[in-house]
Amino acid sequence: MARTNFDQLLQAGSHFGHLKRKWNPHMAPYIFTEKKGIHIIDLHKTVALVDDAAAAAKQIAKSGKRILFVATKKQAKDIVTEAAQSVNMPYVTERWSGGMLTNFATIRKAIRKMTQIDKMEADGTLNTMSKRERLQVSRQRAKLEKNLGSISDMNRIPAAVFIVDVMKEHIALAEAKKLGIPVIAMVDTNSDPRPVDFPIPSNDDASKSIKAVVDAITEAVKEGLAERGAEKDAPKKDAAPAKEEAPAAEEAPAQEEAPAAEEAPAQEEAPAAEEAPAQEEAPAAEEAPAKEEASAAEEASAQEEAPAAEEAPAQEEAPAAEEAPAQEEAPAAEEASAQEEIPAAEEAPAQEEAPAAEEAPAEEKKDGEEA
Questions:
Q1: Sheet holding 160-164, edge to edge
Q2: Which residues, including other chains, have CB under 8 Å from residue 211's CB and lie 6 or more apart?
Q3: 125 and 58 in one domain?
């Protein structure tokens, strides 16, 4: 969509050029015809070139860079001042100070001087000066404000320069070209469009024509600033839902871990509960063999009181019986073996005594016969 249209420019008088004898031959491509000794500008080309210049200005504003508006002509001062202030861009509507771009460091020093005077006025330092010194400082401040007040917030060289009437602002154009700064300019039939990067052929003397072109550029700058603001806000809006999802994602694992945590203690308690009865049974099991061993020890002591012949076999077989894997059967095995061996032990002495008894009468009979 075009920033301007043919009828709007026609009503603003943008098609009127200078006298034929004042023309610049390099403007011939933009001249439609000549009428009553005055050149008529081709507004169809003007509309297309305004769109190109507006697109460039929009892109510069979108990138966060600044455009310097320059117009020191009487009929353009108020229009450019209002337009530049509406988009918060620096502007020069008074005298163009030589070296404002090429000697920018010196210009910054003058701006810092103006700022220093403001601080002195704020903290009351000026009140300590004499009346003559205060008057000199105030005059210096007024002069700096008039020439440099509109660019006091321009901390670096601008990314582009918009000029009204390149013939009058030829110093600004020369400095911009020397530094390689893109130039958007209104050029009339008496101007040279070659040094201008984005020429806009139109009447640069009529206030209505100037306003029509300046408004088109200003609207483009506003759109660029709006898009830049939207791009800055977009990451914040994306980050907000992400932050909301993050706690939800953290809560979900927490909820999953909570049952797991509950199950883990349960599982830990279950083995503990199993181990507790096992531990309780273990002492009971240990006590039972201990009791059995105590009874076995009592029986063994009882058996020790028996004759020495009976003790030997009992003591020999008692360890064998105790080595049996079944602790409960050990006492029974010991008792059984003890019972079996007691008669055997009793028979053995009986058998030994029996032959001895038989031999004794036999010997006595022999002695009797011999006698």
A1: 91-92, 67-70, 160-164, 183-187, 198-201
A2: 12, 79
A3: no
Residue 293 belongs to some domain of the structure: no
Question: In terms of domains, do 166 and 79 share one?
Answer: yes
178 domain residue, yes or no:
yes
d(CA 369, CA 321): 55
Averaged pLDDT for residues 31-45: 93
The strand ranges marked E within 96-142 are none
| DSSP code at position 65 | -
From 198, 139, 131, select the one nearest 163 (Cα to Cα).
Answer: 198
Residue 114, domain CATH: 1.10.287
pTM of the model: 0.62
- Residue 126, classified by CB atoms within 10 Å of its CB into exposed (0-12), middle (13-18) or buried (19+), is middle
| Residue 153 contacts residue 107 (beta carbons within 8 Å) | no
| Domain assignment of residue 125, given as a range | 102-156
Same domain, 69 and 163: yes
Instruction: Quick: pLDDT tens for 266-302.
Output: 454 444 444 444 344 434 334 434 444 444 445 544 3
